Amino acid sequence: MTVTTRRTWVVTRPAARGSVVLALLGLALGGLTACSSDPVDPARAGTVVVSADLPFASLNGATAAGRAPGSVLVRGLVQSGFTTLAADGTVVPDESFGTVEKVSDAPLTVRYTIAPTARWSDGVPVTPADLLLEWAARSAQLDEIVPELDADGVVATTPDDVVVFGAASAALVRASAVPAVEGATVTVVYDSPVADWQVALDVNLPAHVVGRLALDPAAPPLPTGTPTVPAAAGTPAAGATSPGTGAATTPATDAPGTPTPTATDDADATDDSDAADASDATDDADATDEAAAWALAVTTAVQQQDRAALVPLSRVWRAAGRAGDVTADPTLTTTTGPYVLARVDASGVEAVRNAHYDGAAPAAYDRVQVRTDLDPLAQVDALAADEVDVAAPLSTTDVLAAAERLEAVALRTDGDAVLQLVVQESAGGVFDPAAHAAAADPAATATDLRRAFLASVPRDRVVAGAVQPLWARADVSDVVAAQVGPTGPAAAPGEQAEPGAPVTDDPLTVRVLTNTADPVRATALELLTAAAAEAGFDVVPVDADDPSQTLRTRPEDWDAALVPVAQEDLPVAAFVARWRSGGATNVTGHSDAALDAVLDALAAQADPQGAAESLAAASDALLAGGAALPVVRTPALTLAAVRDREQDPGLPVVTDVPVLSASLADLTSWWDWARTADG
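Now predict its structure.
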């Protein structure tokens, strides 16, 4: 394995590690007397550069833009909270931030206790006001109108003189009473049980910042233009919403709390330092008092339902956290994690060490840059040139081949979202009972057709032909409830019907919707088309400019859809909404009274073990009814430079970087390699 060192000679890395003396001997003999060395940038060794085509859109995790994969990635780096969500849907607590306890089942009562170590990056403590603001935004109890949402789930234009946060949560809408505050605790009482209670409420935007931006007449307005950050395909753009009277002060280019050293005379420095410390202490106290006053204003507005304050608060909350420049929006630089944003632009974001973080997992590096301006092959080239330290390019055969040619690189592959085939049961298509009105039992006829079509899917061949070339360990997935997580509860094996003889004398046309720009889905569709023909189905690809929009808004255009299913921030509620009759995200029109009863019980199951069992039962019912079929997890690729501190001076050393799964609702755990445990 050959690498070019920072000097002009080329050595094999194993020899350099075991026989450095040979290189030194060469120098002594004069063979390399003319060698020169490149200057080493001290800052580079403390700066990790990550490349991923996942543009950042917003830090507001309660909005569609904030739930886009690039936003989830950045928020996982800069934001801490009471809990995080694992890939299998389990909840992981962070007691250095606080605790979440279920103190009663009847009614469901949840108590949040904020730890004294929970602080915002401007040094202000996290307070109950931060949770009250989020409850106000997510419970919809204070919204005066039901907001209109566009096709991407973004709040459309709303009147300026109404209270509308427009971010109703399926969990918190069941907590209609204003939470009770006592000291550092907040208690939420639910009207009915909620399965996702552990992750239903957490800190999001800083109440003291939002309060000032909304309620301080002296604050300039937030930017109203569309951010310059590019949106990825399928990622909602962070469109403009008119803010209220509030807005941003201009933060420093560097993160808050990051000092800029200056040269001084030693004697004068001592006196100046003492004076500066006293001045800083006074300034900090004043800033904390001011922040407390704005946080109290938010608390009062929520508790007293003060409309005059809630109108601008809701307006600013909708707009905050999505500006394209950190100097224009202080909510971008006020977070609770080990890093804090210092730059946001079209090339990506840069985060620096949070000097005020006092939690259990502080920053391991001085800076982390997330670049989103490189195509997949360019990411591989940048890694080879030491311009990038970690890359998560789209996995294709060309990209994987280029990555495998690199030296001194850790190459990891794994699975991401679960690719599922879902069947359209309404809108007059071939699997709609209404299309078989002449049959003795139209519903049974449609069910049999759905089951026969899904039974024709050659899952093993799809795995072998579409995914295993990119991820050798790929296998058939049985996870129907992928909203909970790609490794969540699986359906019982053996539920899929066996393919049989053709169902009719004449082939039945099935219009299949998928994104054929993705090579994995394109290959899967080819294999499906050939196998379905043997079972009497003529598969026709749906020509759609935007498959995701067609999936949601034009059910009459497709009969089946091959789609990757991502994890959701409220896993159980999302699964219920997708499969219950008339559910908010039920795009297939599936309706089953018996399944509805199971889903209703699941939505109210506050015990995690009981919820897992109900998820498995619901998954079995969906397979038996021919509603959906999981096929395989989509492949993911992550590359990390392998370096030695002595052999690679001036470059950061990264270790144990896992595969980046962009479909996860929470990527906090992916960043574990960029943190140190317990300070």
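The radius of gyration is 27 Å.
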